[in-house]
């Protein structure tokens, strides 16, 4: 029987994942995800607070970092609470909630890719165009870049949502994923999904492939510039300028590329679906968890800003 997304027979999607039905093991997974979510919220909220409140961080690099931090908060909040709910309560999710989760998880992926590529271009300008940097990149321009990237990300995913909600669903509403995903839901549709498949390919090429190409070209230029530096001191300064961002870039894009590669291999070698589930969870948790830690450990500016924030908070009580 075919029915549309609003009909009563298909009001819920049932998520099956390796974290369910494990008894005490499930409680251990719940505690783990709760700890990860609490650490992610705390770290990213602290990072966003110091970027907004500390005058010393009002520079283009940190203005654009605020976009990435916001994206991390969106991605982790859209996935981790639902995963924890599936472990200890019902694994059924209503279609409206499923579509809402789909929207925010895809915005996270696209906005993070865009933000990281923009930050890479900023680092390229700082190292390869130092005399023109403050003309080419300033806070007002960085804010405009943030707004443009967020707007384009939302627009791209809104189009994706319009393409999926128009479908009828006539298959068993069970997905083997920890969250609602566009192509997973497309597989449940009973009518023609060619437009969805084509648009999904376009967004992946633009959001992952295009941004990764920008990052690779920029870092190749930066590496060439470092080799041209006459002194070791100049080379070391250039490396210090990019090492923090490079770590963040590697974690995010490697997590995303692993999903794409393993998904292709899964079709060829009949790999367990749980492998994809673990990689998807990793993509939505590891970058958001590690980014505040990396910036806190590697950026002296952020460490000093956090120390000033703590002193302001505890000072009056002493």
TrEMBL record:
The keyword Ion transport does not apply. Residues 43-295 form the G-protein coupled receptors family 1 profile domain. The chain crosses the membrane at residues 28-50, 62-83, 103-125, 145-165, 201-222, 242-263, 275-298. One of its GO terms (molecular function) is G protein-coupled receptor activity. One of its GO terms (cellular component) is plasma membrane. It comes from the Eukaryota. It is a multi-pass membrane protein. It is found in: Cell membrane. Keywords: Cell membrane, Disulfide bond, G-protein coupled receptor, Glycoprotein, Membrane, Olfaction, Receptor, Sensory transduction, Transducer, Transmembrane, Transmembrane helix. Belongs to the G-protein coupled receptor 1 family. InterPro entries: GPCR1_Superfamily_Member, GPCR_Rhodpsn, GPCR_Rhodpsn_7TM, Olfact_rcpt. The lineage of its organism: Eukaryota, Metazoa, Chordata, Craniata, Vertebrata. This is Olfactory receptor.
């Amino acid at each position: 029987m075919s029915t549309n997304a609003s009909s009563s027979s298909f009001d819920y999607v049932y998520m099956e994942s390796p974290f369910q039905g494990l008894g005490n093991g499930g409680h251990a997974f719940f505690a783990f995800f709760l700890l990860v979510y609490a650490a992610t919220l705390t770290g990213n909220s602290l990072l966003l607070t110091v970027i907004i409140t500390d005058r010393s961080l009002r520079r283009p690099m940190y203005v654009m970092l605020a976009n990435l931090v916001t994206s991390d908060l969106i991605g982790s909040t859209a996935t981790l609470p639902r995963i924890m709910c599936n472990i200890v309560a019902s694994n059924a999710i209503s279609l409206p909630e499923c579509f809402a989760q789909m929207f925010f998880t895809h915005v996270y992926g696209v906005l993070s890719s865009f933000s990281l590529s923009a930050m890479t271009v900023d680092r390229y300008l700082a190292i390869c165009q130092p005399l023109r940097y403050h003309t080419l990149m300033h806070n007002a321009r960085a804010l405009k870049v943030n707004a443009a990237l967020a707007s384009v990300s939302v627009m791209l995913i809104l189009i994706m949502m319009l393409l999926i909600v128009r479908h009828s669903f006539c298959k068993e509403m069970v997905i083997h994923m920890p969250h609602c995903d566009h192509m997973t839901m497309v597989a449940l549709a009973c009518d023609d999904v060619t437009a969805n498949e084509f648009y999904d390919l376009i967004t992946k090429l633009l959001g992952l492939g295009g941004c990764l190409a920008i990052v690779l070209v920029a870092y190749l230029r930066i590496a060439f510039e470092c080799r041209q530096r006459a002194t070791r001191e100049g080379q070391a300064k250039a490396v210090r300028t990019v090492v923090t961002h490079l770590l963040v870039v590697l974690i995010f894009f490697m997590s995303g590329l692993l999903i794409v590669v393993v998904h292709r291999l899964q079709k060829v070698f009949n790999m367990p679906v749980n492998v994809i589930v673990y990689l998807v969870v990793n993509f939505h948790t590891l970058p958001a968890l590690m980014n505040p830690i990396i910036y806190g450990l590697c950026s002296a500016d952020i460490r000093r800003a956090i120390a000033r924030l703590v002193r302001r908070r505890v000072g009056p009580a002493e």
